[in-house]
Every structure is written in structure tokens, then in C-alpha cells.
Amino acid sequence: MGQGGAQRRGNCGVMRRGFLLGKFMPPHAGHMALIRAARALVDELTVLVCWLPDDPIAGEVRLAWMRDLLPDCRVLGHGQVVPQAPGDSADFWPIWRGIVAAAHPESIDYLFAGEDYGAELAAQVGGLFVPLGGRVLGLVDDPLSGLSGSGVRADPAAHWAYLPKPVQAHYRRTICLHGAESTGKTTLAAALAAETGAMTVGEYGRSHCEVHKAPLTRDDLLLIGRAQQAMIAAAAEWAGPLLLTDTDALMTAAWCEMLLGERPQELMQAPKADLYLLLEPDLPWIDDGTRFFADPADRHKFARIVAQVLDDAAVPFVRIAGQGPERLAAARAAIGALND
After folding, report:
1. N or C: which terminus of the chain carries fewer CB neighbours within 10 A?
2. 126 in the Ramachandran plot: left (φ > 0), alpha (ψ -120 to 50) or beta?
3. Please, what sign has the CA dihedral across residues 105, 106, 111, 113?
4. 91 and 180: one domain?
5. What parts of the chain have a pLDDT lower than 70?
């Protein structure tokens, strides 16, 4: 049964097959509740994911999401350019009868939909129309029935609790604070987290150095980079729309170049953030017991390496300068522009 498991039969020994279609752009809790209810009513459920080439979320992406979310259903895709409403073409219904027949060559027992169009679709392709969900009843203020793909796309953060994990991952933005020593990364991360409620991933390298208190080797630095990326990936599963990271593997690559004169490709090729905030070295250097470069010349050299790593990695970044509120305001503006 495609992505589904072995066939089973209903209480009366009759195989019941159901069908539904949609754009699922993106899938949300309203879609999932409807589909789960439909699946409970049949032995086999076919879900057809439809898209056009210029959709704001690629159809192939949505098809992959739905297959991941519905392992016990037959999930198929249709991406050809066809009429989208009866008024678009006199051949609208013959075309869509053919599309449904290709996706579901077996007879359809139940045609599921959460909107009134399901009645005519059922009449055209066969099957009893089963109008699931509160939208058919006009419950537009209900949290599930009132959800819409356009509303989610306009403000994913406002609908976060109603988005499946793959959709959350699509909309989540990771912001990495990047900069030389004593440029206020940790302080700025805390201030941004307090404002936004974002989860923050701390700097593994600091913990490593405080525990081991020995000169850093290449193996140490590779471990630091790997551990940092592992912490980021683990935290992302639980993060909201925004994830703040106090450094990542690109910063470790800069440390490697400064300390060892090389830049390991493993660190340069690690997963990247959506935006890097490059903190300028315009704050006083403070010795916290784990810092290296008190000499102004060394600090300047390290700052150049830190910036060059971002250029060479071809990642988006914004330079952040100023003291206190000015620094925070610049960071806030940079993050805000990311979502515009």
C-alpha cells in the first residue's frame, strides 16, 4: 500500500478505502487532525499532495514532509500545471477525474475533505463525502479549524504550536554570534534571548578550556567544533522560531588558523546558521581566565581572521558595533531584517 503497511479489513470484513487531496502549504495541525481522523475510518487512505511550479513552498518539499508525517498512508504527488478551479477551464472536472483515477485506481469508499468542495469532488470521482473538521461547520475561531496555509506562511511564529516538526525546522532561523575574544557574544546572546524568548546554545569551547587547562591541539579544536555543532543540532529539536548560538564551527575554524596556522575543511563545511552577527572588537578586552590575546596587535589579527572566515564561507553576516544598548539595537535590527 505505498508508504502504508499491510492491508487490513474493517469489522465487517469489507476493505474500506479513502481519498483526500490538498496543497498542504504548509501542513499544519488542522490538516493533520483531519487526516488522522480520516485514517481511523478506513483500511487504506490515499493522500494526494498537489502543487504548481511557482508555489511559495516547493511541492517536492511538501511531498517529503507528508510522507514523513504519514507513514501509514499512501502519499502521492501531482505537480503538473492544471486548472485550479472550475471557472478556469471547461475541462476542469474531466482533468481532475483523470488525476484522481491515476492516483487512486481502486474504487473510493470515502472522499474526505474539510471544506464544501468535497461534495462536488465526491460526486465527480465517486465515494461518499465525509466532511471532517470544524471548518465545514463554520467554526473559524476554533484553533484547528481556523488555521490556514496562508496564515501560517505570513506569520509562522504565531502558529508555532500547530506546526509539525518538519515544518518548524523549515521556518526556524538560527542566528550565530561570531567574533573575536571579549566582543560581548555571551552578553549579547543573553540580552537577545531575554527579549525574544529564544533558546541559546552556549559555547562549548569555554567549558572545554576551563576543564582541561592545557594548550589546544588540532584534535582539541576539532572536538570543540564537533561538540559545538552537536549541541546546536540537539537544541534545535526543542527550539522555537529563533535559535541563538554563541559561536559555531566557523569560529573554531578561525581559532585553528590563529593558533595553528591552518583552517580545517571539516570546520568550514559544517552546517551553517541563517545569519551571523559579526561583533566588532570595539569593547575593552577583559581577562576572564580563558582568553589568549591581550596584545592589541594579536587581537586585531584575530579579528581579521574571524571576519575572513565568514567571507570565505560565503555566509550572510552583519557587522555589529557600539556599546550596550547601541549594540543590542543593531543586533535586533539585523535579526528583524532576516524575517522581512
Report:
1. C
2. left
3. negative
4. no
5. 1-12, 134-140, 283-294, 340
Residues 246 and 301 in one domain: yes
* DSSP E strands, the chain: 17-22, 44-50, 74-78, 110-113, 128-131, 173-179, 199-201, 242-245, 275-279, 317-320
pTM, whole model, 2 decimals? 0.86
The span from the CA of 243 to the CA of 245, in Å, is 7
Same domain, residue pair 179 and 94: no
Task: Name the residue among 193, 177, 186, 179 with its Cα closest to residue 277.
Answer: 177
d(CA 181, CA 196): 25
Residue type, 230: A
**Do 137 and 223 fall into the same domain?**
no
Which string of b and e fits 216-229 if b means at least 16 CB within 10 Å?
Answer: beeebbbbbbbbbb
Distance of alpha carbon 319 from alpha carbon 210, whole angstroms: 29
Q: Which three cell numbers stand for residue 52?
A: 504548481
Q: What is the pLDDT of residues 114-173, one digit of tens each?
A: 988 999 999 999 999 999 986 666 666 777 778 899 999 999 999 999 999 999 999 999
**Is there a cis peptide before residue 26, judged by omega within 30 degrees of 0?**
yes
Is the residue at 10 inside a domain? no
CA angle 156, 317, 61 (to 5 degrees): 40
Joined together, the cell numbers standing for residue 164 give 509539525
With beta carbons less than 8 A apart as the criterion, state whether 216 and 254 touch: no
Indicate if 206 and 313 belong to the same structural domain.
Answer: yes
**pLDDT tens digits, one per residue of 305-335:** 999 999 999 999 999 998 889 999 999 999 9
Count H helices and E strands in the chain, helices first: 13, 10
User: H or E segment at 43?
Assistant: none
By CB neighbour count within 10 A (0-12 exposed, 13-18 middle, 19+ buried), where does 53 fall? exposed
Residue keyed to cell 532561523: 173
| 21 contacts 50 by C-beta, under 8 angstroms | yes
Q: Please state, in angstroms and rounded to a whole number, the distance separating the CA atoms of residues 163 and 175.
A: 21
Residue 163 domain flag = no
